[in-house]
Amino acid sequence: MNYPTLKLLVDGNWIERTASGSLPVLNPADGSRLGQLPRAGAPELAAAVVAAQRGFVLWSGLLPLERFKLITRATALLRERAGSLARILTLEQGKPLAEAEREINLSADTIDFLAEEGKRLGSRGVPPRLANIQSQTVSHVPVGAAAAFTPWNFPVNLPARKLGAALAAGCSIIIKPAEETPASCMELLRAFVDAGVPPGVVNMVCGDPALVSSTLIAAAGIAKVSFTGSVAVGRQLAELAGRHLKRFTAELGGHAPVIVCEDADPAAVARLAVAAKYRNAGQICASPIRFLVHRSRYASFRDEFLGGTRALRLGNGLAPETQIGPLIHERRVSAMQAYVDDALACGAKLLCGGRRVAGNGFYYEPTVLEGAPAQAQVQREEPFGPIALLDVFDDLDEAIGRANALPYGLAAYAFTRNLRIAHELGARLQAGMIGINHFGVSQPEAPFGGVKDSGMGSENGLEGLLAYTDVKLVSVST
After folding, report:
1. Alpha-carbon distances, residue 123 vs 113, 214, 325 (angstroms)
2. Is there a single domain that holds both residue 22 and residue 119?
3. Cα–Cα distance measured from residue 308 to residue 218, given in angstroms and rounded to the nearest whole number
4. Could you tell me if residue 293 is inside a domain?
5. Which residues are CB-neighbours of 161 under 8 A, at least 6 positions away?
6. Residues 215 and 353 reside in one and the same domain
7. Whether residue 251 lies in the annotated active site
8. Which residues pair with 469 in a beta bridge?
């Protein structure tokens, strides 16, 4: 099986047992137990904060070039280990092995980009207004020790975004990955330990989420908090961070619309849409969900989309033929069924799927619903699973209004051959990331973040790095 013994990482020490006990980690493909995860209690959390403070002093004192060399040594190890790490990721998360390996290599690219930006992060001069002021410089300085909280859907890439930005800026970090997928993050951090990053600079704790988050955010030694997850939990952590005046970045949920205009090629768009919708079984915050298709193109789009969806091969992510793996746990399967049952009761039409797959594991059929009304739960809440909603529109203003109607604003997509309409859609759609004629909005070099209830701040890009810095002005007079 090659699943590692699970451990926490505090001050360079791997901790296999604690007085707080352990949690089981399951394989979503068959429900079997993969391992036991030690739970961090108050002693481990306190030690992690002290270690991160000490690590920050050491790490921030290194030259940016020295930090860059250690970081890129770690990403070289990450790439060397991508094959074995991908298998671990698939075992505990479920996604197809090819997707897992792409995630690991993209994570290394993301960290490398941030390290490059950190190496050249400079200061600027500000002309003085008074004759006795000799110089004024504005610089970005590392904010301090950071606490990062990440979910299970991208268990390497999401920690990598926070880890890469923190280290490139000169910060230390404590990461709490999801308890469902701890080994992926553990092996990510192992690459940094093996590369020679000093003890205390990178730390990992798991356990009771409420205890871990409340303890770390309230700790005086933590200066920055970053969270990826649901809107509900994001609100709670934002309130806690605000109470302690901690800098806070949140990448929260989405409910991405897709507008397919009258001049688009419906079959070509549908083929792209199936691949984007069902990647990682739809467990992606920027996943396309609400497909609004011009009435004149709807029948062609629907037929191609249904054909592609029905052809998807569902199964264990380790099987080479698998295109869509299991959901992360039984609760998500039950949630999918509840969304479908509610939509049908509200008047939606089930075009395909709509049932859990019999047998072991947490599988749900790729599902397409047509005409789900606005009051259906799945139209108002992020399903975070393999459910697509198809509907028609007649007027572009109507489509944009429906796309913007929800409080979410993470990603939005549109397809048109008309350059004027493309620019209009880019200007009027309310989202932090808008893809016109493609779905690939997540790139190491570009900021990733939402507006409205989908979060605050960005990760990736230069913006992701600057989120781990404070601005300092030094004005020198004679």
Report:
1. 19, 35, 47
2. yes
3. 49
4. yes
5. 110, 448, 459, 460, 464
6. no
7. yes
8. 142
Q: Is residue 168 part of a domain?
A: yes
Residue pair 90/96 in contact by the 8 Å Cβ criterion: yes
Residues 392 and 427 grouped into a single domain: yes
Residue 1, pLDDT above cutoff 80: no
Q: Which of 285, 304, 382, 459 is catalytic?
A: 285
Query: Could you tell me if 335 and 311 are in contact, meaning their C-beta atoms sit under 8 angstroms apart?
Result: no
pLDDT band at 478 (very low <50, low <70, confident <90, very high): confident
Largest CA distance in the chain: 80
Same domain for 219 and 85: yes
Q: For residue 363, which amino acid is it?
A: Y
For residue range 356-389, what is the model confidence (pLDDT) as tens digits?
Answer: 999 999 999 999 999 999 999 999 999 999 999 9
Which residue range is the domain that position 270 belongs to?
256-443
251, 304, 365, 459: the catalytic one is 251
Instruction: Say yes or no: 184 and 323 in one domain.
Output: no
The lowest-confidence range among 1-5, 199-203, 264-268 is 1-5
Query: What total number of domains does the chain contain?
Result: 2
Kindly state whether residue 86 falls inside one of the protein's structural domains.
yes
Evaluate whether residue 65 is within a structural domain: yes
Tens digit of pLDDT for each residue in 86-144? 999 999 999 999 999 999 999 999 999 999 999 999 899 999 999 999 999 999 999 99
Q: Are 304 and 271 in contact (CB under 8 A)?
A: yes
